[in-house]
From TrEMBL:
The lineage of its organism: Bacteria, Bacillati, Actinomycetota, Actinomycetes, Propionibacteriales. It comes from Nocardioides cavernae. One of its GO terms (biological process) is translation. The keyword rRNA-binding applies. It comes from the Bacteria. GO terms for molecular function: large ribosomal subunit rRNA binding; structural constituent of ribosome. The gene is rplJ. One of its GO terms (cellular component) is large ribosomal subunit. NCBIfam families: PRK00099.1-1. Belongs to the universal ribosomal protein uL10 family. Keywords: Ribonucleoprotein, Ribosomal protein, RNA-binding, rRNA-binding. Residues 174-218 are annotated as: Disordered. Residues 191-209 have a biased composition (Acidic residues). It holds the Pfam family Ribosomal_L10. This is Large ribosomal subunit protein uL10. Coiled coil: none annotated.
Amino acid sequence: MARPEKTAAVAEIVDSFNDSAGAVLTEYRGLTVKQLQDLRRALGENANYAVVKNTLAKIAATEVGIEGFDDLLTGPTAIAFINGDVVEAAKGLRDFAKANPALVIKGGVLDGKPLDAAEVAKLADLESREVLMGKLAGAMLASLSQAVYLLNAPIAQAARLAGALQAKAEQDPSILAGGAGTPAAPAAEDAPVDEAPAAEETEATDEAAEPAAESTDA
């Protein structure tokens, strides 16, 4: 490969590394052209699957600051540069490798850190971003419902209490004046009878009786 072509090829791989969220290295030895096409179709917009030369990939990895990558660049290599959901791309590669054993996942890189094949497999076992977002949304809605219930419960209780007080006030208006529970003043006709005047009348009767007795004696 001429130097200008080599430089352009390295620059293209560098751009792919920089523009992607991660990358998975595979060995595609034994796969047919049709199978490679099927793999690209299966990955869809999540990843761009490209066959690369190991020497050029090493240079590009060095330029973007990826370390510990050289050991993975052996044999025929193709890299899935992940542009979408990393977990979905890893799942797509894993599932395709199960159906087509000729595809071997050698490792990858995520956030600039190298991953071995086992770590890529663990990544594929995670739930996708959409599933996690769905669960998060469900949890948020549940929390929101609980919050609304907790906020509305005291209001409903206060409304019931106000209704009960209003009904009681209609029956006994003195509640509004702060007289609830205070016995009413006794009516005039219910007032106790004053016994003093009766005693005075008795004394007057006795005095009137004495002159009558004297006149009888005379």
